[in-house]
Amino acid sequence: MPSVVTAMLGALDVREGMRVLEVGTGTGWNAGLMAHRLGPDRVVSVEIDAAVAAQARAALARAGLEPEVVHGDGYEGWAAGAPYDRVIVTAGVREVSPHWLAQARPGGVLLAPWGSHYSDQDALVRLTRAPDGSASGPFLRMVEFMKLRAQRLDWDRFGGHVTSFPGDARVSSTTVVLPDLGGRYDAARFVAGLCMRDCAHVVNETERGGARAWFFDLRSRSWAAAEFHPDAPEATVYQRGARRLWAEVENALTWWADQGRPGVERFGLTVAPDGGTTPWLGEPGNVLPDYAAG
Question: Domain containing 184: what range?
Answer without folding.
Answer: 155-258
